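FIELD: query
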Amino acid sequence: MKKIVEICCGSYYDAKQAAAGGAERIELNSALMLGGLTPTETVLRMVKEELPLKVVAMVRPRGGGFCYLEEEFQVMEAECRMLLKNGADGIAFGCLHGDGTLDLEKNRRMADQIKNAGKEAVFHRAFDCAADPFAAMEALIGLGVTRVLTSGLKPKAMEGKDMIRELQKRYGDQIEILAGSGVNASNACELMHYTGIHQVHSSCKAWLTDPTTVQNGVSYSIASGEQAMMYDAVSQDRVSELIARVRAMETQN
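FIELD: result
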């Protein structure tokens, strides 16, 4: 089975870097420093019109967790319609109750809207906050979700590799398992080999400088120390390196 590298992008610039590095699929967000929020219609349209990429667009109305008020969910449904109308190939979403169980009603409404449009329904890393990952996965399979992004319920995917392997073993023939968080060129092949998964998700992040970030005692920094004047962006070189290593692994196998 072909191995897939998905690049996490937070802008049109990021998407261009991902495409130049050889990526075929991206997850498109805004505000990655908040964990990724819904991208704008303009960015999605520019990416789809100008770049040869399969785009999974995030639907997330705010930072924090995934237990949404009805007003927030109404926005999510409207954003989902907008993204699908403007060319998204899939939608990433996830709704939980406060106790960590899946909000089946909200997730069903999202999944049905996406599937009725003939697109991919992707459950994002809200999965890693689920109280029972096996019950959650079985529920998502029942909803017809295409794919689940997970770090194996740990901060980084390599730390959660045993859970990812177990999920792949139990459910890999019913739903796609996509591993993300801390995945890069140095560990992606090891992770794929150990878990048996065929897909990884990576930010391939580098840092760019904006000299106006801190001026006159006013700071808009999103990082600290040496990176206080910087913001994160996808690196074409890191995308290329990651994809080259995964392709080499395919050849060896």
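FIELD: remark
The chain has eight helices and twelve strands.
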